[in-house]
């Protein structure tokens, strides 16, 4: 998680294509080492592809530069605008790929355990680190469940004549009401059942709790952190 934060900060700080090339090579090496597969990583880009393309088009059409290639009203396509659009598109792409690599190689429980361990010193100032990590792990755990329930409700509503894809944007928004109401009711009911189940098992927060698997910093972890940290520092200084 520290490496991911360092990479995200570096991607935002650097402003040259050479630095982006180095980061892209680094992410490609990490992808090969993780055995996740290039197709799997690129599949994570698909949900944000529209935002990347939309941002690219906006910068091409409306970014003002000195070397104008085409002009029509408020639309001005310039060399600088195209360079800016490509620059931002690459930056967004690297951000998504870097984040996807973490979620594809690390389970939600490992992420929450890592966050609790990393923010452990905050317990001394009465910050409920364990409870925050527990809430995050529960939220991640129930995302697939909510997605499945949404799909089930949509199919049930469609069988009863509901339309979610037809009409203008206002009609589509109005059509989501029969979907959102039962979804929220089911989510609150599931939350209440989970709270009762945790109380019946005598859950009282993180005070005095132990772990079956304790996170321990290994040499390979320190090596990966040192390599990535050195790369990020060098990129921010020289590129």
What does this structure look like?
The chain is mainly α. It has ten helices and two strands. A two-stranded antiparallel sheet has the order 1-2. Helix 4 runs antiparallel to helix 5. The longest helix has 31 residues. It is flat, with a radius of gyration of 23 Å.
Provide key terms for this protein.
single chain, 71% helix, mainly alpha, 2 strands, 239 residues, 10 helices
- Sheet-strand content, in percent, reads under 5%
Write out the strand line-up for the largest beta sheet, numbering strands in chain order.
1-2
* Helix proportion range: over 70%
SSE topology string: HHHHEEHHHHHH
Please give the largest β-sheet. 2 strands, antiparallel
Query: How would you describe the shape?
Result: flat
| Content-based structural category | mainly alpha
Give the helix tally: 10
Give the low-confidence spans.
Answer: none
Mean pLDDT: 84
- What distance lies between the first and last C-alpha atoms, to the nearest angstrom? 24 Å
Number of β-strand runs:
2
Q: Please state the CA-atom Rg, rounded to the nearest Å.
A: 23 Å
